[in-house]
Amino acid sequence: MQLRQSERKQAKIKIGLQGCAGSGKTYSSLLLATGLSNGNFTKVAIIDTENGSADLYAHLGDYNVISLKPPFTPQQYVDAINICEKAGMEVIILDSISHCWDYLLDYHSSLAGNSFTNWAKIKPLEKLFMDKILQCNAHIIATMRTKQDYVLNQKDGKFIPEKVGLKSVQRDGLDYEFTLVFDVDIKHFVVSSKDRTGLFMGKPEFIISENTGKVILNWCNQGKTNQIQNTIQSTVIILSEKEVYEHIQMCNSIAELLDLYKSYPQFHNSLKPDFEARKTNLMNINNPNNFNKNGHTKFQ
Q1: Is there a contact between 147 and 169 (Cβ–Cβ < 8 Å)?
Q2: Phi–psi pair at 105, nearest 5 degrees
Q3: Domain residues of the chain, as ranges?
Q4: Whole-angstrom Cα distance, residue 143 to residue 154?
Q5: Taxonomically, which superkingdom (predicted)?
Q6: What is the spatial distance between Cα 185 and Cα 189, in angstroms, rounded to a whole number?
Q7: Do residues 181 and 168 make contact, with C-beta atoms less than 8 angstroms apart?
Q8: CA neighbor of 67 nearest in space, from 80, 56, 58
Q9: pLDDT tens figures, 145-188
Q10: pTM, whole model, 2 decimals?
């Protein structure tokens, strides 16, 4: 046992992407993977449980696919991840992990005896699956279906179910295992419901793009092995004007925006209106009378 000073290390991101059917989870995952792999789709793999839906977006690039068949056991997912790791995949998309939870629920219901104590037989199987995801030496994007969630409220002495939003088809609290969790709505807009990176929490809804993956990759690579000097300037990545523009839209504070402005003086003239617009947006972000203009960009 040793006491040591904390240090930021390079990381492999573990992302949860949850949404209802038709929200674009697979497509959004591929866009994230494009950025996380620096556009090298040969290093991207999809573990597909959605009856071949992974092949619907083959026009995006030459990514790799492993198709799983029922029953979707935890061990089958683990074996597929092992194959991807041995093949040198840098980004692995699990589309989706809800099927694994469905299998565990069916298996639990088939067990004889006490239902409560039978969960002790399920827990090790789920732990095997989650440990593999968390320990995998690749970026992981796991999609999850959502369903309507209810709570029981007492009214006039009776318990009445009331809708309280959407809930992922997974065990309660699974989102705590991920570094970043995106909630995708039917119009393909996303918000972050959990964010250890600090890149997206509290940010207005937006549409996932390749640049979203690049921003996450930059965060992952800002570990100790990348630091030459212990200053902000030592971790600045040289970006194009378009990429600086995209970073402007993702700044979460005026201080962060100012750092970006100081880091790229060559774009002060061309991007000054965008810096000022983002500053105004951040100053009024909590004003309920404002609406966001996500999806609009000066670069196509």
Answers
A1: yes
A2: -65, -40
A3: 14-205, 227-283
A4: 34
A5: Bacteria
A6: 6
A7: no
A8: 80
A9: 886 555 567 777 777 666 444 555 466 667 788 999 999 988 89
A10: 0.69
